Automatic annotation (TrEMBL), chain A:
<feature type="domain" description="ABC transmembrane type-1">
    <location>
        <begin position="72"/>
        <end position="284"/>
    </location>
</feature>
<feature type="transmembrane region" description="Helical">
    <location>
        <begin position="203"/>
        <end position="225"/>
    </location>
</feature>
<feature type="transmembrane region" description="Helical">
    <location>
        <begin position="263"/>
        <end position="285"/>
    </location>
</feature>
<dbReference type="Pfam" id="PF00528">
    <property type="entry name" value="BPD_transp_1"/>
</dbReference>
<keyword id="KW-0813">Transport</keyword>
<feature type="transmembrane region" description="Helical">
    <location>
        <begin position="156"/>
        <end position="182"/>
    </location>
</feature>
<keyword id="KW-1003">Cell membrane</keyword>
<feature type="transmembrane region" description="Helical">
    <location>
        <begin position="76"/>
        <end position="98"/>
    </location>
</feature>
<dbReference type="InterPro" id="IPR051393">
    <property type="entry name" value="ABC_transporter_permease"/>
</dbReference>
<dbReference type="InterPro" id="IPR000515">
    <property type="entry name" value="MetI-like"/>
</dbReference>
<comment type="similarity">
    <text>Belongs to the binding-protein-dependent transport system permease family.</text>
</comment>
<dbReference type="GO" id="GO:0055085">
    <property type="term" value="P:transmembrane transport"/>
</dbReference>
<dbReference type="GO" id="GO:0005886">
    <property type="term" value="C:plasma membrane"/>
</dbReference>
<keyword id="KW-0472">Membrane</keyword>
<protein>
    <submittedName>
        <fullName>ABC transporter permease subunit</fullName>
    </submittedName>
</protein>
<keyword id="KW-1133">Transmembrane helix</keyword>
<feature type="transmembrane region" description="Helical">
    <location>
        <begin position="110"/>
        <end position="130"/>
    </location>
</feature>
Length: 290, 442
């Protein structure tokens, strides 16, 4: 009896230690999410004083609204490109950092800089880079006699620019996650592979990737989550335009909530974004066995 | 154990003694202070009156720091020693939402400043105080200061005839042009119609210079677009712009021509206010529609009437009789939960007083106070002001609807489509977007 009590006590310690953080998360996030779910079922906006229960009407409306469907479509492109390019770059940079022998800490710190800069500052920087004829990229192209490219005035190029900015912004954290995974691999495995004559590509695909698959899963969750929720770079960089070409779901949500003051509709969009995040995370958790 | 209990009890008793003594000290101290204060005040007033004066604290939310009076209410507080003003800056862009949220939490300010097109939303949410009686009191007690405000000052702070405050500052958009570029292109006078604007713009645009600088992005509410629309004779029904009209088709066609004939910059669809203004201020653009508050910045780069000129917006041929000069305003609105409407009225009167308004108008936005507009100091600091005195008297507010922000989104769609598709049929475009607007407001 005494033995099982001790065992129970020992096993319960981690759960007890988790309680404060769980309470904090539930208190801050849980309330917001539950309240969001509730008001998405009502009609809460500034156009009327009544707040009638409307059930799923808000969800039905947004899924029939071309503006929302456009945002969903643009979000899927934005997230897919950000995640695919982001994870490849993260892996490449993580391996490069892992291989460094001199000034490793300096370069690790350098990698984190984009992540530490605010979204507004990053947006301003990308604006300087891609603004019309005075942007640095066009200035550079003009040196080679190339025509000015309308980066932010063309619908697809603007989407390309925000994807690029997003990758620049969210990839550093994914790099650190993968680097942590790489540093956990026993170096003797690499030595043994080299002795057995394995090529570098084979080491990457057959040793590194399988051994850090759980870290890749975590990185993918981060990249997807950060990309689905990204709006602080897009809003100041393109405002969702030209047209509505860069109005991803998070930007659409922001406009609904803070311009239109249509809280219930914005909550419905928030639930959609959260569902997408959860679904994608669930897939990663299953595939990569995180 | 027993010893420990005795020690604990002793500490507890000592603590209680200290607390008791300190409370006695405080009350003694307060009494002393009161006595001192009463002794002092007998020189000017009696004790009874002093006790009757209620200490009032008013909270004011300004939409920009620039709107706060230079003296930060120092003079006001000296004149009204029982009223303390606390100011906070809640950006105009967020003020409506923040005020609604704060009101629901009973934490609202007494006075809030919002863009005038948001007055309707707050009024219909029943968050504002009907100031009819208080304004009547103002007019009765201080008619000079009341009459110094143009009617627009009250209109912009009203909804369906009920006043909720006062608009002290309002900014119109005027047509500006670069005289040097005009001369190079063979023109000497400001255009009278928007057709002439296009003609001159085409003559100025040569790859190096821009004929007409315009905001094409979604970064701002389409107030420049609407200002142009109203100068073209654009009409509104219940605050809803009528795009499927002659003026509606004309303005879409105007934007199409700007883009199609390369009169504006190729990147105009991504241009924000800063880009549009910078193009004019740096002398790259020949024409633009720019807010009066930016004129001092232009003046720093160029000299008025020598290098640049300005006039009320041109008109649309055939739309002369309906043309209007639109102004945006930033009214001070009174919360219906304020406990001190009398003190609020005093604060509004102070904010509207000529001396206070003059300081703000000299360094920031124009005003609805006519005494300031004709003040020698103002006219000297703003050499263009005299040319706009008549136009100022004709300013009208931007009509608004409770679904204003949704309407704005559709207008931005229409404007951007016009820029992106210069060859499309403007009439069809106007019909399409009017249908969308009508669906929103039905």
């Amino acid at each position: 009896m005494d033995f099982s009590y001790k065992q129970l006590k020992k096993k319960s310690v981690p759960y007890v230690l988790l309680i404060p953080s769980m309470l904090f998360v539930i208190g801050v996030l849980g309330y917001g999410v539950i309240y969001g779910v509730v008001i998405s079922l009502f009609e809460v906006n500034v156009y009327s004083l009544e707040t009638p229960f409307v059930g799923l009407k808000n969800y039905i409306y947004i899924f029939q609204d071309p503006t929302f469907l456009n945002s969903l479509y643009k979000s899927l492109i934005f997230v897919f490109m950000s995640v695919v390019v982001g994870i490849i770059l993260s892996l490449v940079f993580a391996i490069a950092l892992y291989k460094l022998t001199i000034m490793k800490s300096f370069f690790k710190g350098l990698t984190l800089i984009p992540y530490l800069i605010s979204g507004i500052a990053a947006a301003t920087m990308f604006k300087f880079l891609f603004a019309g004829d005075v942007g640095m990229v066009n200035q550079f192209l003009s040196v080679f006699g190339m025509e000015e490219v309308l980066w932010l005035a063309d619908e697809w190029l603007a989407l390309f620019v925000i994807i690029l900015a997003n990758i620049w912004f969210v990839t550093p954290f994914a790099i650190l996650i993968l680097l942590a995974g790489l540093q956990g691999i026993d170096e003797q495995i690499f030595e043994a592979a080299k002795i057995d004559g394995a090529s570098k590509l084979r080491i990457v695909f057959q040793i590194i990737i399988p051994l850090i698959s759980s870290m890749i899963g975590v990185s993918l969750i981060w990249l997807s989550f950060a990309s689905f929720n990204m709006f602080d770079i897009i809003l100041p960089l393109t405002g969702g335009g030209p047209g509505r070409s860069t109005e991803v779901l998070a930007v659409y949500l922001y406009k609904l909530a803070f311009n239109d003051l249509n809280y219930s509709m914005a909550s419905a969009v928030m639930i959609v974004i959260m569902t997408l995040n959860l679904a994608v995370s669930f897939v990663y958790l299953k595939v990569f066995k995180v | 154990m027993k010893r420990n209990l005795i020690v604990l009890f002793s500490i507890f008793a000592a603590l209680m003694l200290v607390i008791g003594c300190s409370q006695e000290d405080t009350s003694t101290s307060n009494t002393t202070d009161d006595n001192t204060s009463n002794t002092d005040e007998t020189e000017t007033t009696n004790d009874e009156q002093t006790e009757e004066v209620e200490e009032i604290e008013l909270t004011l939310w300004f939409g920009r720091e620039d709107f706060i009076p230079d003296d930060a209410f120092e003079q006001f507080e000296a004149e009204n020693p029982n009223i303390k003003i606390t100011t906070d800056v809640i950006p105009l862009e967020n003020a409506t939402e923040e005020f609604i949220r704060a009101s629901k939490a009973d934490n609202q300010p007494d006075i809030v400043q919002v863009p005038s097109d948001r007055t309707k939303i707050l009024a219909e949410q029943q968050l504002l105080l009907d100031m009819t009686d208080h304004l009547a009191q103002w007019k009765q007690e201080n008619s000079d200061s009341y009459d110094a405000m143009v009617p627009l000052a009250w209109d912009m702070a009203s909804n369906e005839g009920t006043p909720y405050g006062v608009t002290v500052h309002a900014g119109p958009f005027w047509y500006v042009y670069n005289k040097n570029l005009f001369e190079e292109a063979g023109y000497s006078e400001a255009p009278k119609t928007w057709d002439e604007v296009l003609e001159i713009g085409e003559a100025i645009s040569d790859g190096e210079n821009i004929g007409f600088s315009v905001i094409g992005s979604r970064a701002h509410d389409p107030v420049w677009f609407l200002s142009t629309f109203m100068s073209m004779g654009g009409q509104f029904e219940d605050g809803v712009p009528q795009l499927n009209s002659d003026a509606g088709e004309y303005i879409l066609n105007f934007y199409q021509q700007l883009a199609g004939k390369d009169i504006t910059d190729k990147n105009a669809i991504a241009w924000e206010a800063d880009n549009m203004r910078a193009a004019f201020i740096t002398g790259e653009a020949g024409q633009a529609m720019i807010g009066d508050n930016i004129f001092p910045t232009i003046q720093e780069a160029m000299s008025y009437n020598e290098d640049w000129g300005a006039s009320p917006p041109p008109v649309r041929p055939g739309g002369e009789s309906d043309a209007a000069y639109m102004a945006l305003g930033w009214p001070y609105l009174v919360s219906n939960k304020t406990e001190h409407p009398e003190a609020v009225l005093k604060a509004l009167q102070y904010l509207s007083s000529t001396e206070i308004v003059k300081d703000v108008a000299l360094r920031y936005q124009p005003t609805t106070n006519v005494e300031v507009l004709s003040h020698p100091e103002y006219l000297e600091a703003k050499p263009w002001a005299a040319d706009f005195e008549e136009a100022f008297a004709q300013l009208v507010e931007l009509p608004s609807h409770e679904r204003q922000s949704n309407i704005y989104e559709v207008l931005l769609d229409a404007m951007q489509e016009a820029i992106q598709n210069p060859d499309s049929d403007a009439k069809e475009m106007a019909e399409k977007y009017q249908e969308q607007i009508d669906q929103i407001v039905q």
